[in-house]
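User: Last request for today: this protein with magnesium ion, please.
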Amino acid sequence: MIETATHIEFIIGTEKRLTDIISRAEIEPLLRSLIKAGPLSASVLDEAEQPLCRQGQDAPVPPSDEIRHNLLVEGEPKGALLITFAPDQVSAPEALALLTRDALQLIINNNLKRMLTTEVHTSVVQESYDQLVATNKQLMESEKKYRQLALSLEQQVAERTAELQKAYSRMLQQEKLAAVGGLAAGMAHEINNPNGFVRSNLVTCNRYFQKVHEMVNYYQLQIANNTPLMQLQQESDKKRRELKLDFVFADAPDLLAQSIAGSDRIARIVADLKSFSHVDESGAADADLNEELKRTLAVLAPQIPADAQIIQNLQPLPTFDCNPGLLSQSFFNVLQNALQSRSAGLVVTVASRSDDGGIKITISDNGCGIARENLPRLFEPFYTSKEVGSGTGMGLTIARDIITGAGGTLEITSTEHSGTTATILLPHGAGKR
Amino acid sequence: MIEFDEQQKRMVLKLVYYGPAMSGKTTNLLTLHDQLSLQGRGELMLLDTTEDRTIYFDLLPFFYVAPSGMKIKLKVYTVPGQVRHDATRKAVLQRADGVVFVADSQTAGMSINFESFDNLEKNLSMVGLSIEHIPLVIQFNKRDLTDIVAEEQIRSAWGPTGLPVLMASALKGWGVLETFKEVLGRTFDAVNARHALTSRFGVDKEDFLTTILTVADDV
Ligand SMILES: Nc1nc2c(ncn2[C@@H]2O[C@H](COP(=O)(O)OP(=O)(O)OP(=O)(O)O)[C@@H](O)[C@H]2O)c(=O)[nH]1
Ligand SMILES: [Mg+2]
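Assistant: Here's the final one, the structure of the complex with magnesium ion:
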């Protein structure tokens, strides 16, 4: 047995002395009984011939006989039983001695068995304990590792979220750009048209002006030459006809009036765009949502099919505290979908009203509708039913984000082949962003 | 080696019967106990078992005194073969001087034999012993049964290891003494090589073997 600071280690099989195995208290009753049967003395001696236990007379007086039997530990003599008795005093002394030896040997063997069992048990328990300690240590270490991991995970999640948010606002920006791009194409056409005839009118007016100039020069020259009045009258009439000045004077005012109207039209388009995009404003403002709807429709005008019918049913609304630029962006996205839902015979109804629940805006069309299986995916980012390249798939996602951000809801109901209705609900007092 | 006391001229050696559960380790010891004479051997000690399966170990001790006075005690142990008693196997294996690996010859037992042999190799190294160097004898037991792996097959599988392989039926009582003699001789040689048992302590191998292997009169 090796005892160290932390635990006891048994080497199975280490040698034991007799005194390790049996104690005086165990042997004594046996020897005492033996003496009662007649022997003078009985002792158990250890390896060194020292008595472990002794009963009977201290010094047996001769003449006395002696019987000695070895006691074995694992087959090896490790002690002895010594019995003395007076000659002929004891009947069958040898049988008595053997009986005692066998009893002692039995105690020794059983004790040894118990000790060996204890040794294995102890060493196994010790090993299990050591293993437990080691496992525990490992567990604690891995727990520490996981805790650190969890901490850094949180950080990673935060970083990712920030990245995502950045990516999302880039996305939003791109969606806006796409909308603006679409708008720009329509607007270019709208502006080019009046601009075209304004320019052509101005070119014509320039030519007219040169004719007038030439006429005036002619008069000045004739006056300087003191051309007689009669002659001047005749010749200038001729000149006037040559220059077709009568036509010029009749046409010029029309051209100019037309040009002024054209210029006004351009001015109105620009104003619509400006007010739709709210470029001059920033942040929250009290908005009239009907105005926003009208402006949105105005900027979308170039995208409205020629035969389409737009029904506006706009009831008076209380002002809504919001970021009007953002909100009109969401109207734009929803309206654009409605306008693209059908090419011929399109009817779009834009309605608004206010009741106790809040402001309710509905935009319905009689267009192609949305297949039932696609309805759940409507608000998924990048989901689009349009042809590749014609939509980012972010329109409705962004529209809903904006409306939710303003404290409202956007819901879409649709029946395939018969039409779609978008319902925007904005509770009173919501908004403020 | 459990103990070596040069002054006292005492040496305590340890042999271990290793192998999978139910391969017949305990039966080997029972047979040795029955066949060898009581002279020079102690009683077989079977520590508690549950339904015949060893849970601690079995021990059969021998005690030899050379004419020179050198005392050699030999303790022969079995380990519990069941997988769950690995800690006990390890404890018993400490300081072993020789090992008998008792394999089960039945065809169904082959993979379990290999698992147990791997376990022996692992546990030997865990207690600081090496399967390369320790005297090791393989016994294929239960040769009396019918559904067993053919001897040629066993020899061709184990031949390359160079280890002695013996066939036995511990139940019928043959091959057991031969196995014991083989491992005893090899263990003696190994100890002799390290501690000069013969030249310094006057221990004769033949006398040692024949004394311990003295067959009981009534067998
Ligand atoms: N037929 C046959 N049966 C055997 C032989 N040797 C052992 N057995 C039987 O196999 C069973 C297990 O034998 P044990 O000696 O207890 O096996 P063990 O290796 O000590 O098993 P554990 O203590 O669990 O590791 C017993 O029923 C034995 O009678 C043999 O040579 N032939
Ligand atoms: Mg057993």
